[in-house]
Backbone:
């Protein structure tokens, strides 16, 4: 199962090791099978760079702890067209919705800017808790 993980989930996992966010990232790291198959973190340069930028600004966190999750074989090289996601208020969040849509992946996020317009996005958007429950994590 292909997923795109928003930066807020990486932050939550770093501060709450028992959280749904942490369980999701652990399942990606371990290649653990879920109800929909092994979890694969799909990424592109824009989403990886945004994740790195956010994590490096938080003293207790850092990108090094999650860098291994960004596997080259899961890099999405196609077009994503975030400019078409104007229903997402925060421009920085548009790249995550665009990637999930282009890569046919589930977008995992706690961000209100992505959850609010979820019904009008061309991808599945779920909170970390809802996603973890659905796939049995």
Residues:
């Amino acid at each position: 199962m292909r997923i795109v993980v928003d930066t807020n989930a990486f932050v939550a996992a770093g501060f709450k090791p028992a959280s749904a966010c942490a369980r999701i990232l652990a399942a990606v790291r371990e290649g653990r099978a879920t109800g929909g198959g092994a979890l694969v973190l799909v990424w592109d340069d824009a989403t990886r760079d945004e994740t790195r930028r956010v994590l490096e600004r938080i003293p207790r966190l850092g990108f090094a702890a999650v860098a291994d999750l960004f596997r080259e074989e899961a890099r999405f090289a196609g077009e994503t067209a975030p400019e078409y996601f104007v229903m997402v208020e925060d421009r920085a969040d548009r790249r995550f919705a665009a990637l999930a849509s282009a890569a046919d992946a589930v977008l995992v996020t706690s961000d209100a800017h992505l959850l609010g317009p979820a019904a009008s996005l061309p991808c599945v958007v779920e909170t970390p808790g809802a996603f973890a429950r659905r796939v049995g994590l």
In short: The two ends are 13 Å apart (CA to CA). Strands lie at 2-5, 33-34, 37-38, 40-41, 106-108, 125-126. The chain has a mean pLDDT of 94.
